[in-house]
Write a sequence for this structure.
């Protein structure tokens, strides 16, 4: 403004003495000149100023010209001056004097350690090749400073430095991070009905402590979550409906890098629930809806107390809990959705009773509307898999009343096929007509399902060997499965082929045909190497009234041969050449598991019976029964909120498996009776070597590839408890506890004497099939003298999951 005033003063007074007889000569300049420009051309400067020769000048015109030139960002200084050549000359020259800004040649950030350099550089808004803009430098400094404060570095300092690069300059933002701000103390004021220490425990922000892991580092996002969610939820769960956070103060000590956080709260009265009222319900009676009422005027049961202890919540009582009230409302909404009333409105109302009684009455105002009927079910994205194969997994069909649970189960069933990338997008719904009917759209994305693998090897004493394998679980895109596997070598000759059709000619009947020629990897001391040749056909039928249960019948015939020598070249002392076994089998399976192959929820229940010999023929007559129970419960979901990500799932699994053989298995004992220990051949029990658990107890004579006749029994029982973390459909980590035993006869069964093992493991799905590794500790192992000798055992698994 001062420069503009001087310019106008010069224009008006006509500074040369010789021009006093021609006042105001500069107010209408004859020409315009530019001084001080190097990079920006004269014509560009004049054009940007908006000034023209012969135009009359005024204060607003000159003010606008200077503002426009500054607005280009090319100049640090702009002034407009008047020049009068001589008194005898009537013309005047208007001079635009400028000082140009340097061009940015390089922008860099130095001194970053706690935050990656790239993350900090993303906050810099300066552009290389553009003039230096002090305002943008200030903005970049503020953005970097905000980034560090969000990470808890309140003591960070950012200093810009300029270096000459020829005709350009380099801008360096030098960062001095300092130490991360630590919370030395957390003080809560104003609490009366609750302990302030409990408020601090409910927060994620914690003060530093004695132990090294209690650093007390401050995180602004976590602190904001504490103030906006954690603390209000804490008081809402305890009936403090009128709770307010009046003030939060952070007292920072810059010299020590520590801060004291002080919170001032106002609890208000603790409200109790006076009663429930339900209005507007017609489809469900009041008694059924009242069953979801979460508050009871009674003494909590032992189960409710235990649940509250595990979830770290108050026990059930008549104290109003906003969290439980909202959860109960959601359960009522789900109840209506499962009966097709997806447009039902459940409005939870909380009203304070008049007076000072600190009692609230709660009410559900319900507007049911009309049930939604499924108009269409569309499947999009299946380029290879036929649609009928996918529709077999649906529990909803057009014309059904919409049901949320069946929709979720259909979504999980499609994911369990294993033919599409997971997690599948949740099904979309869209209105179909004005009556409120809806269309449901499932979106899938195909993934590679089949694999071919082959290889060769050469070993000392074993000669040249190899393997060829083909597995396609979605043959022809019709959900049929075909698999061929051949392993060959000097002592190995295994061939397996199978074909499975889950829907014969579009029906609900399934079938599986298997043929095999298998040579066991282990020797039985007095029998040598064993070889099996056989075939089996299995047919499945749906169980009436259940989508999850199937009944199977099977028939198989097998030939077994002993005495062919083992890996050590020893011949059997007693052989069986061409002994036949004829088997008729029945089994019933109910499977509701989800997120296969690493289940996170659902159950598996199966019972199987096999009848051998007798009227069926064959050398041995016996019956074989097995049963298996598995139960999985989802404990928690971790993360997965970002678009395109999937949550980690923490799950608990309980399983039990048992079996018994009645009759004489004769030469088929090694495949039809039971062995225990390891994970490769018999019934698995981690923490113990293969074949080490016998009907006579633990033995140290067992080897990975050698078994004794006494290693086999006619009854067994195993159980497993595990906590697993499912990262995705290809990776699973677990901690487990196994227990089991084996008995010579079914009547010897004694569940009080079990061998125990515990450990942890990892499982993955590779192109070669399922792979796993477990490290387990066998608690009941003995040494050669029969003394306790517990130790760790490493197990490798191929093609088997627990």
């Amino acid at each position: 403004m001062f420069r503009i005033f001087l310019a106008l003063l010069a224009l008006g007074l006509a500074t040369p003495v010789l021009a006093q007889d021609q006042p105001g000569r500069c107010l209408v300049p004859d020409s315009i000149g530019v001084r001080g420009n190097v990079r920006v051309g004269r014509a560009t400067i004049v054009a940007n100023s908006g000034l023209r020769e012969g135009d009359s000048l005024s204060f607003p015109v000159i003010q606008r010209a200077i503002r426009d030139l500054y607005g280009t960002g090319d100049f640090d200084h702009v002034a407009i001056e008047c020049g009068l050549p001589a008194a005898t000359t009537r013309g005047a020259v208007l001079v635009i004097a400028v000082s140009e800004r340097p061009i940015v040649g390089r922008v860099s950030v130095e001194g970053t350690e706690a935050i990656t350099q790239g993350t900090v550089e993303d906050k810099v808004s300066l552009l290389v090749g553009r003039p230096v803009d002090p305002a943008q430098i200030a903005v970049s400094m503020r953005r970097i400073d905000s980034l560090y404060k969000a990470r808890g570095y309140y003591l960070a300092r950012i200093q810009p430095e300029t270096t000459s690069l020829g005709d350009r300059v380099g801008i360096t933002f030098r960062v001095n991070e300092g130490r991360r701000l630590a919370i030395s103390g957390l003080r809560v004021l104003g609490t009366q009905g609750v302990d302030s220490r409990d408020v601090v425990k409910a927060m994620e922000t914690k003060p530093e402590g004695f132990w090294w892991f209690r650093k007390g580092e401050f995180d602004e996002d976590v602190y904001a979550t504490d103030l906006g969610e954690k603390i209000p939820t804490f008081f809402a769960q305890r009936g403090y409906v009128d709770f307010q956070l009046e003030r939060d103060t952070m007292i920072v000590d810059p010299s020590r890098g520590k801060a004291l956080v002080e919170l001032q709260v106002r609890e208000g009265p603790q409200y109790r629930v006076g009663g429930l009222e339900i209005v507007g319900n017609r489809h469900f009676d009041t008694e059924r809806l009242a069953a979801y009422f979460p508050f009871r005027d009674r003494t909590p049961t032992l189960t409710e107390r235990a649940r509250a202890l595990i979830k770290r919540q108050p026990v059930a009582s008549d104290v109003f809990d906003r969290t439980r009230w909202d959860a109960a409302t959601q359960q009522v909404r789900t109840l209506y959705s499962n009966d097709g009333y997806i447009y039902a409105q459940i409005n939870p109302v909380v009203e304070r009773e008049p007076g000072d009684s600190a009692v609230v009455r709660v009410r559900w105002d319900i507007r049911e509307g009309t049930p939604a009927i499924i108009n269409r079910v569309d499947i999009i994205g299946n380029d290879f898999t036929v649609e009928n194969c996918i529709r077999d997994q649906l529990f909803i069909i057009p014309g059904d009343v919409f049901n949320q649970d069946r929709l979720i189960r259909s979504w999980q069933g499609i994911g369990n096929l294993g033919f599409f990338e997971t997690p599948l997008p949740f099904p979309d719904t869209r209105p179909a007509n004005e009556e409120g009917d809806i269309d449901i759209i499932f979106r899938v994305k195909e993934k590679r399902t089949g694999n071919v693998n082959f290889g060769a090897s050469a070993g000392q004493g074993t000669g040249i060997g190899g393997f060829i394998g083909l597995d396609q679980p979605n043959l022809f895109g019709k959900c049929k499965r075909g698999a061929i596997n051949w392993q060959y070598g000097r002592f190995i000759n295994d061939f397996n082929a199978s074909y499975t059709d889950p829907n014969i000619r579009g029906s609900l009947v399934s079938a599986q045909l298997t043929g095999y020629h298998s040579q066991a990897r282990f020797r039985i001391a007095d029998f040598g190497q064993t070889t099996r040749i056989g075939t089996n056909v299995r047919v499945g039928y749906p169980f009436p009234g259940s989508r999850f249960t199937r009944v199977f019948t099977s028939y198989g015939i097998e030939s077994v041969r002993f005495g062919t020598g083992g890996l050590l070249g020893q011949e059997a002392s007693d052989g069986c050449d061409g002994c036949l076994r004829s088997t008729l089998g029945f089994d019933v399976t109910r499977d509701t598991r989800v997120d296969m192959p690493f289940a996170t929820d659902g159950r598996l229940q199966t019972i199987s019976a096999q009848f051998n010999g007798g009227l069926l023929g064959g050398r041995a007559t016996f019956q074989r029964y097995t049963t298996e129970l598995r139960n999985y419960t989802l404990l928690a979901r971790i993360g997965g909120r970002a678009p395109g990500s999937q949550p980690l799932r923490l799950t608990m699994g309980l399983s039990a498996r048992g079996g018994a053989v009645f009759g004489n298995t004769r030469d088929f004992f090694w495949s039809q009776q039971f062995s225990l220990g390891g994970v490769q051949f018999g019934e698995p029990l981690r923490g113990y070597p293969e074949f080490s658990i016998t009907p006579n107890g633990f033995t140290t004579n067992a080897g990975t590839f050698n078994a004794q006749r006494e290693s086999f029994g006619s009854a067994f029982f195993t159980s497993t408890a595990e906590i697993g973390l499912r990262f995705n459909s290809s990776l699973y980590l677990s901690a487990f506890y196994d227990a089991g035993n084996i008995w010579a006869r079914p009547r010897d069964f004694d569940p009080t004497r079990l061998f125990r093992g515990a450990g942890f493991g990892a499982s993955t799905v590779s192109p070669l099939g399922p792979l796993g590794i477990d490290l387990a500790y066998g608690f009941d192992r003995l040494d050669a003298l029969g003394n306790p000798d517990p130790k760790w055992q490493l197990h490798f698994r191929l093609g088997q999951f627990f």
Observations:
- The radius of gyration is 41 Å.
- The longest strand covers residues 621-638.
